[in-house]
Amino acid sequence: MAGRRTSAPSGHGGWDDYAPFYDWENARTFGRRDLAFWRRLVEARGGRVLELGCGTGRVTVPLARDGHVHVVGIDRSAAMLARGRARLTRAHISSADLILGDIRHLPFRKASFDTVLAPYGVLQSLLSERGLSTTLGAVASVLPRGGVLGLELVADLPSWREYRDRVTLRGRRGSRGPWVTLKESVRQDPGRGFTHFDQVFIEGRGRAARRHAFTLSFRTLSVPQMARRLEQAGFDVTATLGDYQGGPWDPRAEVWILLARRR
Fold it and tell me: Which structural domain range is residue 206 located in?
């Protein structure tokens, strides 16, 4: 097994092991459906952009390709960043930097970005209240007054039904790559407010198959709960959205986005 499980997850475990499969899985599930939203937000704002938890550059690279002044992504997974840097190289993009670092302690000067993005569930991977509040404080410090934070939550995690060892995806990784099967389990921990996704990627078939197992964990934060934390960190929530076209949010929406402006 390439990953390991712990009884007290920190939130960042598993992502290095996930790196070879991240783009493969997302292309078949989440895909690119949020990119136009983040592009419109950045286009309207202009200036320097920071993406938290940029991973393989799924959002950072398209933003940089659009020709914005400068885009910076930060992530604590070296394996994810290696794939993002390769993507930048293939696209011949020099107007973006992908930095290894901890989003709780951003290594940037005060007011050095105009917009900060935290796409799909990034802030929910911070499993402690202290970690989230520290991160929001760090984000506030790198934004000027009026700077914007845009974030998305995984919608209504507590409602996800538990299941075990379900085959959710099959297919080749790349046009000539190995056959991959994803077996997934979902575990709810309502006492601590966590949802755990136990993933096993089986690469190849038969006796030669290799298994890569790890757990991704997220906090089950709601939009009102996140809005309160943003306000405590010095932000004014300017919009809560329920789709990528800018429609209003309600608890049944499939998309949960908050936009907040630094006071």
Answer: 157-219
